[in-house]
Fold these 4 entries.
Entry 1:
Amino acid sequence: YMEIKCGTLDWFIDELKENQVFVFGSNLAGKHGGGAAKNALKFGAEWGKADGMQGRSYGIPTVSHDIQSMLTVQRIKIYVDRFISYATQHPELEFLVTEIGCGLAHYEPSDIAPLFEKALYLENVYLPQRFIECLKVL
């Protein structure tokens, strides 16, 4: 079974079960050089691909092409909605969501968690504890 260690900004997932997908925040250039995105490389994240399924990982862009500026919450919401739709269509998979947007993009969980409100009710989507805590307040 996978080992999850709760960090301050992320889950550190060392391995996945066969049906699990690692969901990470990416940049629009698909340069997976740090944080959860770098970790996603070992789960099949593709260099140069910003969003969607990539091996056993799923990218959600939160940062610009030049990695200098964060995307707006409204823009991130487009990608999160696309992810939720994908997860809904693939109930055979379990999606392990990291604290996307809370690292390089510098958002707080309270900024990003509301985008995942619909995912809270999906049995195959596992949200970070800090996102769940924010959503319980809504």
Note: Confidence is low (pLDDT under 50) at residues 1-10.
Entry 2:
Amino acid sequence: EPAYEDSPLNAFERLFGSGASNASPVTDDIGVRRERSVLDSNLEVLNQMRSELGSFEKARLDEHSDAIRRIEARLNKSTQPSSGECGSPAFNSGNFNGACDNAANFDVIADLQIDVVTLALKCDLTRVVSLMLGNHQGDYIVPEAGVDTNYHQSIHGRPAEDYIQYRTYFTTKLRYLIQSLADTQDMDGNNLIDNTILLHVSDMADARGHMGENVPYMLAGRGGGVLTTGRSLTLNSVDYKSILDTVAQAAGVDTNASDYPGYGNGPVS
């Protein structure tokens, strides 16, 4: 499982940059940095290493470098977008400075992370994304939510009115994500939201007692036509973990396979 990334600027660089930002000026066009070879980015270090090796070791290093070149050529040919919006995507038009340790930046960070998600799916750099708004403890304040209470405190009902305001604010971020996917065309001509299954969850229901009953879940997107949208369902006697089985099946996973772990009692019929 990839490590989470708090900084949307770092996440964007990992996806669209060379992976060696210290070896290339940030003023470089992102498409240029994406095309730069990992060997070229580290050429100075390789040359220094080569000068310290004997003839046998030099030959082995050259063989290894040539193998990497061949692999890069294959990857560039088969997977990397090289032009258009995916070659040099527009990002961070507001010139956010990247300060992720300041709660005052929560709103712009959330929007930029959503922009990264949309670009990654549009350019087919990934098929699965996890987006978490804030850390799992919820020990932060979001000025844009309009309350001064720590979110963790509001979760436990201190006070409940502040929790409602927080959840209302977070829903605006969910709306921004759905709208972003709806406004972005996928490679087949459909909108991204039509080809996506978006699962919105909470880590618990009544947090005053750390209870897991009646956790609200929401699905958006049609998953390429697998899901029927525009419905509100009340599923009696259905374990919430079965929702995960349902999403897995809708995404094309064989939930009857012997190696499928199974989260609940199987997909909802």
Note: The two ends are 30 Å apart (CA to CA).
Entry 3:
Amino acid sequence: MRLLAFFAVSSFAADFSGIWAGQIASTRAGIDPQEVAIQIVQTGTKISGKMYGDYASSPIIEGTISGNLITFVVKTAEQAGNEINDTRVRFTGSLQGGELELTRERESATRAGSGAGAAIRPGSKQTFKMKKL
């Protein structure tokens, strides 16, 4: 009976598998948008994969799908002045026609060297769209 319920839930989940590409606008004036790609591997209602930016890639963790909605976390290194911070960024979104609309929000940051908490920049929440390749 549980197996049947699993397949019933899984059959209603949208298909997010594949490679998605788009741009994330910079929060700082005069900085060009960042090209990003996300490779999503979907297994039922769980996802994994990687997010690729200009100079680095980061694994997707804590990825889930519920119907048309997707949520995942990426841990990435970000420069803040003279410091490097290990930052948790949560992505939430949904399929809108043929596009994936995502909102990213920095959840937390710690200083890479000391592990101490770091401030999260204002305006850390952004929405952007991606297309499947």
Note: The CA atoms of residues 31 and 48 lie 30 Å apart.
Entry 4:
Amino acid sequence: AGCLIHMHSDGDVRELTDDLLDLGINTLNIQDLVNGIDWIRDNLKGRVCIDLDVDRQNIVRFGSPAEIKDLVNEEVHKLSSAEGGLMLKNDIYPGIPVENLRALMDAIEENMTNK
């Protein structure tokens, strides 16, 4: 009926993605490190809009601001695509240091126009 389909899934979805894309999904929200940045690049980049959940379980919560910036830079460099698109998101949970949230938002903002 012309509707855009946005699919969200937590966890490892690598075995399901071809079937999901065959269903006509336009945007796929998945976790970055659970599925692997290189795997996402090799299998999804340019095929679907990637709505990437930036790791909230380890790097954003326990990493340094530099590690967060490096992660976001890697994801944008490897996954951005005019053919599919890339969106970055993160949920904020208790216990995440404010400096890490600031680093995450700064890194995303710095990469907003990178191609």
Note: The chain is about 45% helix and 15% strand.
